[in-house]
Each structure stands twice: as structure tokens, then as C-alpha cells.
Here is the input.
Amino acid sequence: MKLGPFQALIFDQDGTILDAELGHCQSWIEVASHHNSVFTKGTFKKFAGMGDTAIGKYLAIQINPHLEENTEEIKKIGFELKEEKRNIYNRLIDSLPLMPGVEALLVEAKNIGVLMAIATISPVKETMRTIKNHHLDRFFSVVVTIDDMEHPDQTKPAPDIYLAAARKLKTDVQNCLAFEDSSIGVTAAFNAGMKVIAVPTEYSEHFDYSAATVMVSSLEKISIEKDPRGVFVNYL
Here is the structure.
């Protein structure tokens, strides 16, 4: 089956380009171990989409069962655990692999001259580190991160990051196709007026992807072709 024509492709980073969830999960497992607690892959899946603050609070309660849940002390411990996790993740990030099919798809798109951008809610420092580590700068002419947004509420599922990417690509949103692994990311691209291919991971497959134009199990299921009308994306 085929989608198109398009003029540009816009990719989320964590979970779509980079297997970041692997690193986040491993980081929390290590944090728990440091505090003689247990955190499993199954637990991480239950918190998918809820963020590090929620996990930090959960672990703070597990480690300190004598404390009441909604107290300033639990919040403080949760924040400290989140910072510990961030430091571990920063140590792991360079070893994290690309998602299956990503590099082949990017090479294929570059070879036929497709405009491409990254639109991510990750910080610019972390994003550029991933781009440099995997030599992705050869593919992307535009990179938009959460640091490019003026207000915190411009994060996904708000459309602002995708709108900014389209502006920088000088392409109408209707001519952009987004790739996302998360439901909030799919919603962000949809709210921007773009078609979206959802590529759920094992951590996010249980979410609602009803806003997606198409859902595939892997970017390995995608191929690209170009004719005078524009770029077409084939999917299985």
C-alpha cells in the first residue's frame, strides 16, 4: 500500500530513530538496584508514556514504604532518583542502537533527494549527541528540539514542534509525513495537520493510535519512491 505524494519526512527521535526506551528501562533498573529495590521491564512498560517523574515517585515509595505517598519528602526523593537515572542514561546513550530499519530508510530517502527533519521533545544537547554518535547529520537538514520552544506547554501532544519543523523545511504541513512511536507524538503531528505513520515499540504498543494514518510494526516495513509528483511511501 502507498501514501503520498509528500515533499518532506519528519521523524521523532527517541523510540523512532533511537532505541531510547531500552536505555531508559536499563537506567531505572540500575537505580532500583542501587537502592536495594527491584524494577523490571514489565514495571517500565506499565509506566510507558507517564515520564520519569512518575517512575521516580513510584520508586521513592517502594524504597521508603514507611513514608506517606503524597508528601514533600517523597517528591524530593523522587526528584533525586530521577536525577540519578538521568546520569546513568547519559552514560548509556552512546551505546544505544538505532531502531530496526532506520538507517536503510534514511539512506533510501537521501538517495532520492527527500527533505528530512527531526522533531523531538528531547533537549538539544542530548539530540545532537545522538545525531553525532550515529552520523545522522548527513540525513537531516533541520532539527527541532524542545529547547526551540518558547513555552513548556508547546511540548507534544501540542503541534508546535512539528509546525516549527515544517516552517524550517519551508514545506506546507499537508506535504509532510511524520514518523512516531508514541501516541502523544502521533497526536502532535496529527494536530499539526500532517499524515502520520505510527511505529509502536514493545513499550508503547498498548496505547491509542487512532490519530495515525497508518500503523506498522517496524520501519523495515517502509520503502520510498519518487516521481514528478513527489515522494511516495510504501508500507506493509
